[in-house]
Amino acid sequence: MEIKIAQGSKPGEGGQLPGHKVSELIARLRHAQPGISLISPPPHHDIYSIEDLAQLIYDLKRINPRAAVGVKLVSQLGVGTVAAGVAKAYADYIHIAGHNGGTGASPLSSIKHAGNPWELGLAEAQQVLRHNGLRGRVRLRVDGGISTARDVLMAALLGADEFSFGTAVLVALGCDMARQCHLNTCPTGIATQRPDLRAKFRGKPENVVRFFLNLAEDLQRLLANLGLPSLESAIGRTDLLQQVRWDGKVELKPLLASYGDGPLHWEGQLNVRPEEHPPMDDAWVEPALAAAMAGVRFEYDGAVKNEDRSLGARLAGELALLRCDQPKSKPDLHFQMHGTAGQSFGAFAVEGMTLVLEGQANDYVGKGLAGGELVLRPTRQLALAKNSQAIMGNVALYGATSGSLFAAGSAGERFAIRNSGATAVVEGVGEHGCEYMTGGVVVVLGATGRNFGAGMTGGVAYVLDQDGSAIVEQKYHPEFVAARRLSECECAEQALVRDLVQKHARKTGSQFAQHLFARWPITVQQILRVAPRELRPV
Predict the structure, then answer these.
(1) DSSP conformation letters of 219-231
(2) What is the pLDDT of residues 298-343, one digit of tens each?
(3) What is the mean predicted confidence (pLDDT) over 461-485?
(4) Structural domain boundaries of the chain?
């Protein structure tokens, strides 16, 4: 699993796809809307610091501890320091992307003057990792226009364990580098969704096999000329490189310098975080899976602390594998907890999992929620008759695809960003709520911060607007979304929101929600329906 902090020639703009190429199939796979441009959001939506990156790596390793987790960085000045932080965050490999390569899918402005040659970034990462005693813990991978055996050998000598190929393999499959990927007019039928052009594709697996066999043969000859028995023996051997031309301006000695006396390459083990005590949800897995297999209810009741992170993710991963191997009826797994949960409470929870927390939670509640149900309510001492208390941190429901969240309190910033199918009821959100949302239903029974609904292309939000501030202060983006009173909508839609408010009051015990439900004829006049404008497909 790879976390892309940058993507080669287009840092911060990974996953870019013009609207006219977003077909029904692609929209369904990406949980988006057909005909609407797709672009991965900048990393700052989910990651503010190296600690946030470490948490994401931890989340991914919890859901699948058998998988390797890597981070892709762009070759630029200072990438070595970032690479050291990524290694300390327990990534298993670090990918250094150069400025070359790519297929032409990005705008011209995105591929010019972006990033450095991979040689500079790779050398810096190798030196800093060795200097800090971290090189043996991680694999170094490199890409950026690599196409020949000499490229591979140079990368190995500068410290790379692995090598990625993109453009060269496309050429082997028939790409003629027409640079029309973004226009949906690829003449060889590779980068297009048009059936008439895809019929022209003539590439075969044998083409790729032959390319790599020839490359391997060339590489063997180059290694033999250096007296090296294998590619692994070449990793980090900068002593075999020297500058052959010097014009008095470019000095390459720093590029070939060797720092530290640690290993030159990866030592073969996953970069596993040491745990003084096993995470508490490890104990859930075996009995919960047994209950799911037997078709009986499983219940858990216990206290949680701030150090208990990613609760539920370990079980969610095993349940997903179980359903792949032998589909079963929906399990009934109920977890009742009290206290203060750490980051990523309920991350990746799947259908059949219900996590109820009496207390409060940190950031990333319901990250990647995939069918589970999360309920947050304040402790009896803090329960109030109004919706003022904060009950969770920032970036809740990031990337959720299904499931539900009911929270009797307010959330922090960036609530339900990239939500593409989950249903949520919360009693207030901070700034940037529902940004880049592509599906799902969000009910906000309280105030919203600025920038609500920016980039929203799907789903719908219902916002309680008792004092009219959402309209007066223009907290939402009129170019992205349109707002109107719920009372002007169809009766079925009013009934949907009414049922959600009632369900929220029942599950969380929120007195404020009970009050709103009891005076529904007045409440329905105070709720705004915020939905994307009719965007014209490109």
Answers:
(1) HHHHHHHHT-SSS
(2) 999 999 999 999 999 999 999 999 887 666 678 999 999 999 999 9
(3) 82
(4) 2-256, 283-532
* AA letter at 112: K
> How far apart, in whole angstroms, are the C-alpha atoms of residue 119 and residue 37?
33
Count of C-beta atoms within a 10 Å radius of residue 225? 9
Range in 66-80, 171-185, 229-243 with the lowest mean pLDDT? 171-185
Q: DSSP characters for 371-413?
A: EEEEEEE--TTT--SSS-SB-S-SSTTTT--EEEEEESSB--S
Q: Angle at CA 361, nearest 5°, toward 412 and 396?
A: 45
- 392: exposed, middle or buried (Cβ count in 10 Å: 0-12, 13-18, 19+): buried
Three-state secondary-structure class, residue 425: strand
Burial class for 473, CB neighbours closer than 10 Å (0-12, 13-18, 19+): exposed
Domain 2-256 indexed as CATH 3.20.20.70: yes
Architecture of the domain spanning 283-532: 3 Solenoid (2.160)
Distance (Å, rounded) from C-alpha 326 to C-alpha 293? 9
Is 125:140 a contact under the CB 8 Å cutoff?
yes
Nearest-angstrom CA–CA distance, 527 and 497: 9
Q: What is the DSSP letter of 154?
A: H
